[in-house]
Amino acid sequence: MTLYDLAQDRQPAGYRRINEALLDPAIAPCVPSGAPLGGTSIAIDADLAPDADYDLDILAPKAGDRPVVLATRFRTSHYATPRAFVDALGYTSPDVAPFLPDDLLIPDGMALPAGGFVEGDAALDAALAAIDAETLPLPTRGARSYVAWSFDEATGWHVEALVVDSPEPMRRESTVVDAAGVASAGVRMEPLRATIGGTTLDPYRANARWTRVILRPAAPIAVTAPESVLALVFSTSEGTISGSRRVRAVPSVLEREGL
Amino acid sequence: MSLPIVSPTLFNAQALPAGPADTHLQAGVHLRVGTNPLLGLPVAPFVVYRAMAKQGEDMKLRSDAVFVDSRGALAAPPFTLSPDNPVTAYLSLLPGDVCLWAQVIADPFKGTPTGGGGRPELPPGRPPFRPPFRPPFVPGAGGHRPGVARLDSARLDAVRVGASRRADNLVAGARVTSGIVATAYVGTSQGPSPIARRSQPPYSFSGPGIVQVLLEGTGAISGIQWLEQGDIPALKFVPWTVLNLPHEGGPRYLSIDDAIARSALRVLEQAPRRRPLQETLGAVAPAAAPVEGPVYEAKRVESLAKPISPSLDRLVTDLSAPALELIESDPIFFLTGQQRGTATQRCIDRVLGEQLDPGTAGLLGYKGLDTEFKSPAPFLVFYWVSGFFRDFPPSTTLPPEDPVFDAQLALLSGQSVVGDEGALQVAFETLIKGLRNVQVNAKTLPALEKVGDYIGLGALAVADLSAPPDPMLPPVIDAATHVGWLPVTPPDARREVEVTLSGVATAGLLAGEKQTPDGGVLREQLNKANGDGFHLPLVLGVDTDDPTLPPVNVPGTGFLADRRAAPDTIRYSVAQQDPFGRWSEWTSALNLPGPRPAPPRPVIRGTYTQPADPAASGGTVRVQADIPRLDTLAPGAFPIAQLEITATDQTTLAVTVHVASTGDPLAPDDAIDLTFTGPLLAPTERRRLTLVAVWRDTAGTPSAESEPQSLRLNDPRPPAQLTVPDALQYSGRPDVLGLSMVEHAWTPVAGQAGFGVYYTDENRLTAYLAGSAAGSAGATVRDALAATTDPAARATLFRANAALFPSHLFERLRDVIHDTGTGQQAFRHAVSGSLRVLNLYRISAESETSARVDLTTLPLLVVAVPNADPPPRPVITVVPDDMADNGATYSATVSITLTAGATTAATWRLRRSSLGATDVLRMPIVGTGAMGAVEGDGRQRAAYQDAGPVLIASDATLRPWVRYTWVAETQGDFAPGSVAAGRPVPGAWSASSEPVSVMLVPPRIPEPAEAVTAAGTPVGGGELAGVELTFTHPRVLSGGAAGSYRVRVMRRAPGGSMEALAEVETGGAAGPYTVSGMRPGDAADQVASGTVYRLVIIDPLGRESAPAEGTLP
């Protein structure tokens, strides 16, 4: 267990304002010892089991008194690292995962609503309802990815979106301890983009917990090669990571069923 | 025999011949005696001897002088004096030389010289003339610090004290364009100072220590001749008179008989013919001053001398301290009458200061009149004045004396040393021996102080009867300046005005008066009146002790201070008088009204009170300010009349001015308490009102603005509240983590600065209603809620009775509101995805001041979680449809059946795959349809004839020999109320049915092969090898999962019997199909031409078709 100064962005607003003022050399050049207010962050190295619930109690024992400073409960991820998580989503690296994504066929006359990224369950539900996919089942047995296809008599099949379902949040905030031991609030990982060939799909909708994310290209993608690579890129506190899987030029069900 | 003549700075005399034309002086020669104040009073009367001589006769005159023009060039006589280039004749004086008389030999050119009666006119743009340099001059009274010509009144020559000012202006700076004007200068500690001027020949002057003569105008200058006092001509000096103190004597003064009477007689003899100008009012010209006789002067002098009589007596009789250290003290009082302290002054200063007035000078024996020479005559009259003093030992209490003074005493010849009191008596009696009726007062003689430091000094004065000086010029008022206001409580106002003067004669006195306002009737003397109504002469004031002021280095320059000046415009008039009593005309200047101080900066206190009815009027702005009392106002200030408040609405920038009176300005109220109505605010509006106030006095002068005070005006009304959907809302579908997000967004409107989201759930509200009394509204709602399970209906009940639920049933949610970035606000609240009860929210719009409505007035936003159970898992059966022949369309009828559960199925969805049902989501959807209603057996049914099309491929068909798997799912109806709310929430899909697999089989035996042809390679002899059979078939011979189609091949050679060759698999794709016509395993097999081949098609089930034949050509 290692103790660190509490990162400023984790401090109460009042403490933060005072510290910022006192750390400003133009205002208070006579406080060489740094911020006088704040707190402590504790970094604990421990072997945790995946998918396990833990109680974390922070006590401040003094003689016989053991007051509880903080008691919290958390559940560990099923995955030890972002890499493992991305792999479990079905996107591997460096080898391309051999499994094709599922298909989500957009009925004729339906389309995703226009607009940029919106985080929220209502917006997500509305977007799925717009393509008749509101009842898309939850990924209770594992991550799933759906490629949403549209069909045009003249131009054939087009990729309209990628729906990634995860049993765990794909965007995670956490306190990140840097190499110098300074803890600060940050984003542990979050979906950054997806690509098919050289075309980018940006986050378009995500539910509040980021267990379901829709990524969408600026324009529907016509996959020209019989087979291409679908990559999913995450931003993590250690840099970007990505994984990929195969994607065909048409919905895989067509080939699978001989339709 | 007279005493030795000494330096004029120790002891001097000056004579002035006055003719009958003078307005004030008695005709005759006026003699003025001056002593260094460090000598103190004389210890015996001055004894004056007199002699007469014609000009130039019997005298040793000197002519050595240096003439320097205004440009610095030497001018050697004879030369012509031009108006634009004045010339100064510097007498060539050796150390110790003293010039008593000088005459410039000059012949003025035509025209009347200027300067006889008025001041020469200054040419425009021409700087005042200054002598190019000053000859070496050893100040007689010394004492000023090197480089700083600062006066020290205690060390000045008594004659010149207060008068050695800026003398240049008396004569210089003006161009004399006709005739010659000559001005003589004597040396003073401040530099050469003019002593007399002549504008007509002869240009003769007499005075103690003439150093230079300034010549201006036009004429021929031949030279100068002058008399040094050491070159006293061999004249017969005879005793003339004694000049005594008005005291009968004592230890420190050897007096004479009838001393007081003699003094009084001198006053009478020298009495001016007209009233001194300080005793007139109205700027009366000297010639118009009232004629007065000696009696008036005697009274005036007696009145002036009365205050110094004790000091004089002490100086003569008091041996308690050295004469120069005797002190008189006067009390100083506050205005309240309480004594503040005492003011001390040396007795010697009092007495010597009083002798500045010509009248008192006559009384004290410092001025005499020789009436034997009343008319101009070509005579020089010499007066040899002898005086006895003490060479005081160094004082133990006073500062060190002037070293120059000490040096000059040390340079005295032995003839000046008298010795003890006996020697003094002998020397004095010797001097007065020739005077009739002058006897030593024997009564006081024995008490004479017994010291051995008595000295005798002589001074010589010359009166040139042919050349009386020109009349006095008035002084110049350089400025009349408002200095400041004196501490007088308003509305009274008194100020100090300083009248700056130049051109004041050496040892001159001043008469001053003022007219308030200018042109008004009120005239007052500046000269202070004593108790008898006589006015004390004014002496030019100089700043001597204030180091912040520039040093006084110009003789004749100074000021008069009027500390009783009224605030109005004042006209000041000043005339001057020389030490002999001659008066100048008046000069005057205007002083504008003093600038009144502005009122003090107000300090205001502002408050704002919200209105009772904010829709009808603005709130009340109250401004309070303490009114300064009159005695706290700045001296000279006008009383305060009103407070002006400028209110600036910082939103509209509208400005309103509000005025509050102080009441009677001369008896103002204690405080201003002003209220006015503020601006009418819109609901929830906030504004700032800036208040700035100024006092305004009775003259309308504003004060500096007060510190701005900013008032926050808050409308107390809450903002318009949100309208929430009047229908049951649904949260987001529960996510994989089991949470469902309640989200609601709205667009804020003006006035809605913040929002509060309050939450409760259905259980809490129903629990609250449980206690409702029977028959109450709460009970009615409670019963109605219990009667329905439809969430939409329950939501309607809650919404319709929102007022029943008090605020305490709700909790305010923290950190749930966020900005959507699209101009909307939204809240997000996570609830359990399995929550089956309703969630109820109230959203309160709040103003910036957190004003909000009563929560019970807010509508309820009712939200349910879309987590209704799906319908039960259906069961399906698949029955292939009957077919007329193998060419008909394959289809199957799928029957979907479920036993109705808590959720009725509304929709079925059928999936079919040729790959099984391992992953239902990957099975193509065949179609959806409506489930039938619940039938009597409690089941819902639906059927679908699947002919092959799926959603992703509408032209797909069912193929025989393929094992298809069907599954079905059923979906509940839309969430209750969601359709009516405009956002249909589809029901959940059930788990898929158990899969059902069916392989479709052609209903009939296979059709026979068609178009059977045989072809081979001739090998000779009518034989062929490598025979192949080709045929077509109306179906695709693909057996799928059931196996393959086979072809049985038989042949019959010409004349032979039918031979079965083989059964081989064929098909898999659309024909034509080809099979071998050779006997398997027989490489030597050859087929004769004309052989007939027979083909039988066998399907995977073993069903054989009718044979079809073809002949090998």
Which two chains have the most extensive interface, and how many residues on each? Answer: A-B, 34 and 32 residues
Q: Please tally the helical runs of chain B, counting DSSP H or I stretches of 4 or more residues.
A: 11
Alpha-beta classification of chain B: mainly beta
Note the main sheet of chain B: 5 strands, antiparallel
Oligomeric assembly: heterodimer
How far is the first residue's CA from the last residue's CA of chain B?
A: 199 Å
Q: What would you call the shape of chain A?
A: elongated
Poorly predicted regions of chain A: none
* Rg calc of chain A: 23 Å
Order of helices and strands of chain A: EHEEEHEEHEEEEEEEEH
Q: Number of DSSP strands of chain A?
A: 14
Distance between the termini of chain A: 60 Å
- Give the low-pLDDT segments of chain B: 112-174
Q: Number of DSSP strands of chain B?
A: 58
Biggest sheet features of chain A:
10 strands, mixed
Number of helical segments with 4 or more residues of chain A: 4
Could you report the average pLDDT of chain B, rounded to the nearest whole number?
88
Rg over alpha carbons of chain B: 69 Å
The helicity of chain A comes to 10-25%
Overall pLDDT metric of chain A: 89
Map the helices and strands.
The complex is a heterodimer of chains A (259) and B (1113).
Chain A: E1 2-5, H1 13-23, E2 40-43, E3 53-59, E4 68-75, H2 82-88, E5 102-105, E6 118-119, H3 121-130, E7 144-152, E8 156-165, E9 172-177, E10 183-196, E11 199-206, E12 212-217, E13 227-236, E14 239-248, H4 252-257
Parallel strand pairs in A: 5-7, 6-11
Antiparallel strand pairs in A: 1-2, 3-4, 7-8, 8-12, 9-10, 10-11, 10-13, 11-12, 13-14
Chain B: E1 11-18, E2 28-35, E3 44-54, E4 65-69, E5 79-81, E6 87-91, E7 99-108, H1 168-171, E8 180-186, E9 193-198, E10 203-206, E11 210-217, E12 219-228, E13 238-243, H2 259-270, H3 294-305, H4 309-317, E14 327-333, E15 339-346, H5 347-354, H6 358-364, E16 367-370, E17 379-390, H7 403-410, E18 417-419, H8 421-431, E19 454-464, E20 476-485, E21 495-502, E22 509-516, E23 522-525, E24 558-565, E25 570-577, E26 587-591, E27 604-609, E28 620-626, E29 640-649, E30 655-661, E31 663-664, E32 667-668, E33 671-677, E34 686-697, E35 709-714, E36 729-730, E37 739-746, E38 754-761, H9 762-770, H10 777-786, H11 791-800, E39 811-812, E40 817-819, E41 825-832, E42 839-846, E43 861-864, E44 875-880, E45 892-899, E46 905-913, E47 925-930, E48 939-946, E49 963-972, E50 996-999, E51 1010-1020, E52 1023-1032, E53 1045-1052, E54 1058-1066, E55 1073-1076, E56 1087-1088, E57 1092-1098, E58 1108-1111
Parallel strand pairs in B: 36-43
Antiparallel strand pairs in B: 1-2, 2-16, 3-13, 3-17, 4-6, 5-12, 6-11, 7-10, 7-12, 8-9, 8-11, 14-15, 17-19, 18-19, 20-21, 21-24, 22-23, 22-25, 25-26, 27-28, 28-33, 29-30, 29-34, 31-32, 34-35, 37-41, 38-39, 38-42, 40-41, 42-43, 44-45, 45-48, 46-47, 46-49, 49-50, 51-52, 52-55, 52-56, 53-54, 53-57, ...
